[in-house]
Amino acid sequence: MAHMTHAGVADVVPDDEALLDGLERAAFGYFLEAVNPANGLIADTSREHSPASIGVVGFALSSYPVAVERGWMARADAVARILVTLRFFHDSDQSGSPGATGYKGFYYHFLDMQTGVRVWRSELSMVDTALLVAGALAARTYFNADSGEEIELRGLVDAIYRRIDWDWAQNGETTIRMGWKPECGFLRYGWDGYNEAIVLYVLALGSPTHPVEGDGYEAWTATYQWENLYGCDFLYAGPLFVHQFSHAWIDFRGIQDRFMREKHCDYFENSRRATEVHREYARRNPHGFAGYDEECWGLTACDGPSHQLPELAHERRRLFGYAARGVPYGPDDGTLGGWAALASLPFAPDVALRAARTMRQRYPEMIPAQQYASSFNPTLAGGAGRRAWVSAGRFGLDQGIVVMAIENHRSQLIWRLMRDCPYVVTGLRRAGFRGGWL
Amino acid sequence: MQQQNDPHPTAPWDADERERLDNVHPAGWRNPQPADRYGLVVVGAGTAGLVAAHAAAALGAKVALIERHLLGGDCLNVGCVPSKALIRTSRLYAEMRSAAQYGAHAPAEIHVDFPAVMQRMRGIRARISRADSVRRLVAAGVDVFFGQACFTGADTLAVEGATLRFKKALIATGARPDTPSIPGLVEAGFLTNENVFDLTDRPRRLLVIGGGPLGCELAQAFCRFGSQTIIVQDWPLFLPREERDAAQILSDAFARDGIEVRLNTRAVNVRVDGGQKLVDLVSDDYHSTVAVDAILTGTGRAPNVEDLNLEAAGVVYDTAAGIRVDDFLRTSNRHIYAAGDVCLEHKFTHTADASARIVVRNALFLGRERLSALTIPWCTYTDPEIAHVGRYVRQAREQDIPVKTFTIPMHDVDRAIADGEEAGFVKIHVKEGTDRILGATIVARHAGEMINEITLAMVAGIGLRTMARVIHAYPTQAEAIKKAADAYNRTRLTPTTQSLLRGWLKW
């Protein structure tokens, strides 16, 4: 089937499977382009001089098994690449000094691509360490052969996971702190309300060496808000990625913690409902931004337009730059993450795919070379035939969640791997999860 | 510019100020000859003291009221009344600047006449002071004494050389601004609610320390008057007690107004250089210095428990938490009660009022009314306003009460859309599976007006099911509450009920 794009060029509309395969493989391509093969670190963004982000490395480690399964990468190549990465983290400077790589088994959020030491005075990040280790555990489960390399791989993952002092990260309080800096100690920001931290708590609870107590998870979930919004009952969180990140690793279908048992729901179903809420918000479009409708939605943490960009220096609207955009209270400056709709694929396949197709067709410039830009903003098209302002370059987290969401939709590979990970199973049980595959 | 923390007003001595002072502390006042024994002696003539004195006198008690400064207390003189007057004008300036959004022509040049703002405030304050005047008290039969009260025994106190004997006493001495211990702050001079309303010149650059209600309200007002305003808040969000979304909406509103918001930031040092105040700020590991012309602090309130010789009366107190009272507002001396800011966690005018009424009934009529039985709403009068009543979700969940919240964004309310006042929400928390209201938070331009409906429902035991039957005038912003009740009703339609209804309608 052929149709005309806005640019007037004849294009072929691929079927769903071909479309998803193309998008998934292109997204995975980011990890091949943005890697330092000497240490396995992956750049946070494709922009010049970008440092590595440990969270992005976690997505990469989760995606190598996908690449092997899909025949995009030889198993031996994947193992070699993962070993380089794990050896780097395992042998890294854990002194916690301002120029180290980590402390107490955690890692600084942003690292120098070449030397692997802390940059940007970034914080020791608890949740990004969790994403990194979740990826390592996915790889540990997948690469289960008796070869020397794969045995070493599993050993390194174990060592990296077991040395994380989750208990320390509570700083004597019930909930886990968000970050720590050598200059000032623990950051004062706490986790309040539902967010992407379930995977952090599950890994912290599942640790055989330094687990946190189960009441920490209960204390965190006590800050949840179960809301009826736009006619939907759901566990509220504004940005869409919150409903996607932990879910990329953990198969929440049919398993419930105390909170979800009380609400007769689970975190998978909740993400489906959150998707509906985002669609409803876009349909209402309270601020009247261009492009928003039921097929064009997805407010999330992403890059965005800012007045610091020369072309937007005189823009009169308020612009938020990189921000965790959310529904229904914002911030909202008309910026959408195209990838965010697609990342809801496992929970709401029909609406997510329809939105992905629509947005791709309307704004092809937001997905150059099949890799999603971090965001686009049709309200700031700026004339000259441009349909939208588009964030420059690509962001690693966005590519990672696209690979994992599509793969879980297609084969549930990552979910299956994590279901077989004993630490995750223990962590879920200690968090009070029961039922379903548990 | 007035920068000292002098308790005596230094506002221009105009007709309004003369009227106010004549009402609340007339020159040449002579204290009356004390009665042999009073049924009730009230120490402090702020909201709690005035309410108790009027109520007790109306019921026939022999009442003495002692005030060391001004009748009406903080609320009238340096609190709610003057701040709301300022906020009204600041809203008008904000609307003038955004006139184009309302399809109106914005004035070419908007000149803020700060002296006129303050003059209007003084006029309003003087007018409202009539209700608190010493003449009304005297007419009601209350003996009014000006001076410092000092207990001399379990049932006596002294004021200006006179001894007053009492059957019951009420301590309602209120609270005062708690000065943050920042090196150099006192030397540099700073503003609090006690002297900010005496300003005659607008500070060009203002630093507000503290993101509680007072700091938030005045930061926004002064920003709208044209002061370059920075607000520093020690916590990651404003109004730390309120819901995360409410505080987030407020942060966004501040940024829209042009306030420089510094969250998670502490002021650690102040020094004066070249006539300006240099304040060092620290946020985690980020250090910076800002130069301002005035500093306003709003970092909490300390109870007025000093100089009363409470020990002589056997009244136990704490300099931070205030006078210790039981749930009946009785102190450790069973003849002495306390009410208002000097003993309450919730330091609001309306809680002072409510607690004073409890004291009158408990002290004079053997009542057994409990403070804990009160349903207390409160509101921060920023734009949008943030109002709350009852439990927060977190409190309910900590008590193992399952909670469900019905949320209506103001952008779903026709009148809010028409008014261009869509920022905010109504969130009503009910016990899961029931329509019993546990609490509510409203963020809206007029949230303070809207919260009263929820408070009424809670006090009267009305649930969402009944509220859905209450016709609300259309279009009003309070319709958001009806919409929340309607949303509750829709959740009662289970699939089984829906299928039964469909069957009935087909038939």
Q: How does the SSE layout of this entry go?
A:
The complex is a heterodimer of chains A (438) and B (507).
Chain A (H helix, E strand, L loop, with lengths): L1 E3 L5 E3 L3 H18 L18 E2 H16 L5 H17 L10 E2 L2 E2 L2 E2 L12 E2 H17 L5 H15 L16 E3 L3 E2 L11 H9 L7 H8 L4 E4 L2 E4 L9 H5 L8 H6 L3 H18 L16 E2 L20 E2 L13 H5 L6 H14 L13 E2 L11 E2 L5 H15 L2 H7 L2 H9 L8
Antiparallel strand pairs in A: 1-2, 3-6, 4-5, 7-8, 8-9, 10-11, 12-13, 14-15
Helix pairs in contact in A: 1-13, 2-3, 2-4, 2-13, 3-5, 4-5, 4-6, 6-15
Chain B lengths: L14 H10 L13 E6 L3 H12 L4 E5 L5 H6 L1 H18 L16 H16 L4 H6 L3 E4 L2 E5 L2 E4 L2 E10 L3 E3 L7 H4 L16 E5 L3 H12 L3 E5 L11 H14 L2 E3 L3 E8 L2 E8 L2 E7 L1 E4 L3 E3 L6 H4 L3 E2 L3 E2 L12 E3 L10 H16 L12 E4 L4 E6 L2 H6 L4 E7 L4 H6 L5 E7 L5 E8 L2 H14 L3 H4 L11 H13 L3 H12 L1
Parallel strand pairs in B: 1-2, 1-6, 2-3, 6-18, 8-9, 8-14, 9-10
Antiparallel strand pairs in B: 4-5, 5-6, 7-15, 11-12, 12-13, 16-17, 19-20, 20-23, 21-22, 22-23
- CATH architecture identity of chain A: Alpha/alpha barrel
Overall radius of gyration of chain B: 25 Å
The total of helices of chain B stands at 17
Share of helix of chain A, binned: 40-55%
Give the total of beta strands of chain B. Answer: 23
Residue share in β-strands of chain A: 5-15%
- The assigned structural class of chain A equals mainly alpha
- CA distance, first residue to last residue of chain B: 80 Å
Number of domains of chain A: 1
| Spatial sequence of strands, sheet with the most strands of chain A | 7-8-9
Helix content of chain B: 25-40%
N-to-C CA distance of chain A: 44 Å
CATH superfamily of chain A: Glycoside hydrolase 144 (GH144)
Report the principal-axis shape of chain A: globular
Total helices of chain A: the number is 15
The CATH class assignment of chain A is Mainly Alpha
Rg from alpha-carbon coordinates of chain A: 21 Å
